[in-house]
């Protein structure tokens, strides 16, 4: 499996709340979030890892320069206006085939993620497998509508009757989505959620895979909560 990490945000809310480290280097139980993801990906049969970091984050660039991985590491250093644009930059270095994309502050249990990757690798009938969760942690969640077979039928900004899941920021796709992504960029589309809507509208077969819980780290108070969540992994 090829993996990609969006780590290009500035983490401005964390900085405003007194967190000195840039978001990718914020430590959870002593481990930088970026390092934690990389280690999990390596244990989940990574064939390559690609990541994008903000060109203004010199500390992150210095950290990345120290990495010595057993698989190819593709690094894009660029500031982008949105996560969709970061994904587009990553698409230019990702190998062909299946890949899993996450944001750097997507926090999940490793065992849950390993089951998700196994499911994605085993299913060649779908165009993508989205990590979703019934646990709502995001301030502006993206609600995911699915049918009985867990095929994604819509992405919505507001809750709706029968709503079960929100997006967890874990996206399994293949390189076949790249032409549509290019089209979205060419048409000045903004935001990752609008690209996701475009996938559904274009008829891509996207399925949802449920995680009991996924959290993210947007505020200083989220760091302690994420650590408590991870500390339950082996309980």
Detailed description of the structure:
With 235 residues, the chain is an alpha/beta fold. The chain contains 8 helices and 13 strands. The chain has helices at 12-16, 33-43, 58-65, 83-91, 110-122, 178-186, 192-201, 220-230, and strands at 2-7, 27-28, 31-32, 48-53, 73-77, 98-103, 106-107, 128-133, 143-146, 152-156, 165-174, 206-210, 215-216. Strands 1, 4, 5, 6, 8, 9, 10, 11 and 12 form a 9-stranded mixed sheet that branches. Strands 2-3 form a two-stranded antiparallel ribbon. It is globular and about 45 Å long.
Shape: globular
Please summarize the sheet with the most strands: 9 strands, mixed
* Straight-line distance between termini: 28 Å
Structural class: alpha/beta
Tally of separate helices: 8
In short:
The chain is α/β, with parallel strands linked by helices and about 240 residues long. Helices cover about 30% and strands about 25% of the residues.
Summarize the SSE layout with pairings.
Blueprint: E1 2-7, H1 12-16, E2 27-28, E3 31-32, H2 33-43, E4 48-53, H3 58-65, E5 73-77, H4 83-91, E6 98-103, E7 106-107, H5 110-122, E8 128-133, E9 143-146, E10 152-156, E11 165-174, H6 178-186, H7 192-201, E12 206-210, E13 215-216, H8 220-230
Parallel strand pairs: 1-4, 1-6, 4-5, 8-12
Antiparallel strand pairs: 2-3, 6-11, 7-13, 8-11, 9-10, 9-11
């Amino acid at each position: 499996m090829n993996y990609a990490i969006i780590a290009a945000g500035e983490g401005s809310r964390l900085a405003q709340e007194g967190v000195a480290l840039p978001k990718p280097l914020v430590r959870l139980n002593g481990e930088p979030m970026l390092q934690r993801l990389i280690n999990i990906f390596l244990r989940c049969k990574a064939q390559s890892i690609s990541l994008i970091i903000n060109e203004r984050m010199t500390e992150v660039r210095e950290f990345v320069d120290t990495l010595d991985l057993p698989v190819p590491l593709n690094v894009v250093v660029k500031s982008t206006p949105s996560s969709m644009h970061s994904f587009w930059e990553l698409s230019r270095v990702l190998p062909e085939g299946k890949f899993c994309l996450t944001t750097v502050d997507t926090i999940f249990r490793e065992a849950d993620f390993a089951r998700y990757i196994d499911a994605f690798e085993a299913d060649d009938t779908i165009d993508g497998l989205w990590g979703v969760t019934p646990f709502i942690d995001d301030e502006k969640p993206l609600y995911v509508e699915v049918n009985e077979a867990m095929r994604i039928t819509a992405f919505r900004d507001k809750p709706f009757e029968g709503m079960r899941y929100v997006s967890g920021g874990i996206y399994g796709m293949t390189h076949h989505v790249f032409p549509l992504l290019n089209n979205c960029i060419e048409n000045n589309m903004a935001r990752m959620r609008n690209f996701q809507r475009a996938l559904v509208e274009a008829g891509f077969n996207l399925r949802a895979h449920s995680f009991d819980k996924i959290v993210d780290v947007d505020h200083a108070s989220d760091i302690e909560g994420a650590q408590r969540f991870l500390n339950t992994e082996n309980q």
